[in-house]
Amino acid sequence: MGFFDKLKVGLEKTRKGLTEKIEQLIVGYADIDDEFLDDLEAILLTADVGVKTTAQLLSDVRAGIKNKQIQSPEELKPFLQEKISAILMNGETAEPEVQPPMVIMVVGVNGVGKTTTIGKLGNYYREQGKTVMLAAGDTFRAAAIEQLEIWGGRIGAEVIKHTEGSDPAAVVFDAVQSAKARKVDVLIIDTAGRLHTKSNLMEELKKIYRIINRELPGAPHSTLLVLDATTGQNAVNQAKLFGEAAAVSGLVLTKLDGTAKGGVVIAIKSELNVPVRWIGIGEGLQDLRPFDPAAFSQALFAD
Ligand SMILES: Nc1nc2c(ncn2[C@@H]2O[C@H](COP(=O)(O)OP(=O)(O)O)[C@@H](O)[C@H]2O)c(=O)[nH]1
Ligand SMILES: [Mg+2]
Fold first, then answer.
1. DSSP per-residue letters across 235-246
2. Ligand 1 atom nearest to CA at 281
3. How far is the centre of ligand 2, averaged over its atoms, from the C-alpha of 7 (Å)?
């Protein structure tokens, strides 16, 4: 199955909760009245599109009715699809090309899929013929280091690690030195995500960031925040939290396979000023792709 088909299957539940309900709504009403708009609002909110984005879409619809862009319920679906596409496309820019080593720092709370994303991302660059190095910056548990080593073995990437409990900043220092000395193309840095005390985690991330930047000016070239799509609005809140502490340059949305909360992508795009870079739709090597807004909205609205 190709990625698009897999994305469509993955978004099945979101589509059932959003697109199919909109279709049922359209069939159920002869005219767009206040009741219709109330029902539409409820559908959008339930699909995790978010309060702010839902309000925006409803005001777009009202404007569309007023200026006769929408004259009947059937005209609502293409209208909404277009508005949602526009939200998804907003602010998406290509990653700038950088001189190797390109350093990518990966942050996010525990369990969202950071380490798995690093494995898949490393594989993506390997398939482009690039050399990849991974840094085990989550030193909190031995299992976290082992998990990264397994991914390194699978994709043919060297893993820089220290022992459990060691200072992540020291691991990162070593990794940047090795990446420069061995001229690797891409260095991807794993970090811990335990939120037991928020300020500690944020301070640790800032320290790692400073070390990377001191050892390689301009780096990290991107700081990716990983968010678990199945957590819906929580993902939006995490993005706000991390955005305040770390200079997040892009988002990765994981676990879009089989979630009914895929609408959260729309909320994230409209509420945060950070581009979605990658989406994850499974645990396999191939299950991560660059975010393609057009393909995403097409998969969401596909019949
Ligand atoms: N279904 C699905 N599972 C995922 C995806 N990404 C990660 N996972 C799973 O989520 C769990 C936590 O992932 P992990 O990478 O250890 O998270 P971390 O704590 O942020 O490093 C693991 O069981 C992963 O296999 C995804 O895109 N789809
Ligand atoms: Mg991890």
1. HHHHHHHHHHHS
2. 27
3. 24
